[in-house]
Design brief:
The protein is an alpha+beta fold. The chain has two domains: 1-34; 36-277, 4-Layer Sandwich (Phosphatase 2c, domain 1). Helix content is 40%, strand content 24%. The protein has helices spanning 2-33, 79-96, 103-122, 168-177, 183-188, 227-230, 235-242, 248-261; strands at residues 38-45, 54-61, 64-72, 129-137, 140-146, 150-155, 158-161, 208-209, 214-215, 221-225, 270-277. Strands 2, 3, 4, 5, 8 and 9 form a six-stranded antiparallel beta sheet that branches. Strand 2 (54-61) and strand 3 (64-72) form a beta hairpin. Helix 2 (79-96) packs antiparallel against helix 3 (103-122) and helix 7 (235-242) packs antiparallel against helix 8 (248-261).
């Protein structure tokens, strides 16, 4: 008699358990197809320049999240135009991307299109821009760079440098390591900071791209910045800000505040983008 009285309750309990199991399975399936949560922050200052030659943009698609930063060359005319063309071209080409397998090819194609478009737009007048671009897709970092803007990963309180600066000093350092010149030859060369590769240059060489995608850890911060940032604040100052438990946006704003706080007489345009890997 007691078993008959309990039977309706057991049926209801079994039904509730079945619903909970279905809900759990559905949640697992949704999470399996979900894209990593990438938090984005950025900051910028014009510094002591008359014009803002830095330009940047970010976008997210089914193939991942991209950040692009271009630093128009202040010593040449139309720096702002060059950086805008380059960033816009990269974003447009990324939006056309239909497969993550084509990400490395995307960097090469977008850089060549940018270079061609800048040269066509300027019609013989001088102009150019540096550029760094980072794509985070399924927990991996893909990147491309040309010029002297930089990409870094901030992980567990330490920086991992990613790209090489395309300046004369880099070539001189290679010659120093080969024993062809002295350290003083490198440090005293008056043109050591001169760019040797950039977009908008008739002799443009291939963009530097990652040989293989870099697996990211949860909490890794991918930093893109123009030389107006890294020439103004020290690595220790950056580390102090990035180690804080704050959003990428707040961190980017603090970095720019640190740049402006220096009140350097010749402060260049400064831009920083931070992508934090949420998975």
């Amino acid at each position: 008699m007691e078993e008959q009285q309990l039977l309706p309750y057991l049926i209801v309990l079994a039904f509730i358990i079945s619903l909970l199991l279905l809900f759990y399975v559905r949640r697992l399936l949704l999470n399996r197809d979900a894209k990593p949560n990438i938090l984005i922050g950025n900051g910028q200052t014009i510094g002591r320049r008359e014009e803002q030659d830095d330009y940047f943009s970010t976008a997210t698609t089914a193939n991942g999240t991209i950040a692009v930063l271009a630093d128009g060359i202040s010593g040449l005319a139309n720096g702002r135009v060059a950086s805008t063309i380059a960033v816009t071209t990269f974003i447009q080409e990324f939006l056309k991307l239909n497969n993550t397998k084509n990400i490395p090819l995307f960097f090469t194609k977008a850089s060549r299109l940018s270079n061609t478009e800048i040269l066509r737009n300027f019609k013989g007048t001088r102009g150019g821009t540096t550029l760094v671009a980072a794509v985070i897709s399924d927990g991996y970092l893909y990147w491309g760079a040309v010029g002297d803007s930089i990409i870094m990963i901030f992980r567990d309180g330490e920086f991992i440098n990613i790209n090489q600066k395309h300046i004369l000093e880099s070539l001189l350092e290679e010659r120093y390591l080969a024993g062809e010149v002295t350290k003083d030859d490198v440090l005293d060369h008056p043109m050591r900071k001169r760019l040797i590769n950039y977009l908008g240059y008739e002799g443009f060489k291939n963009i530097e791209i990652c040989k293989a995608p870099i697996p990211l850890h949860k909490g890794d911060k991918v930093i893109l910045c123009s030389d107006g940032v890294y020439n103004s604040v020290t690595e220790i100052e950056l580390e102090k800000i990035l180690s804080k438990n704050i959003s990428p946006y707040d961190a980017a704003q603090e970095i720019i505040e640190a740049v402006e706080y220096k009140r350097l007489r010749n402060q260049d345009n400064a831009t920083v983008i931070i992508l934090e890997n949420g998975w």
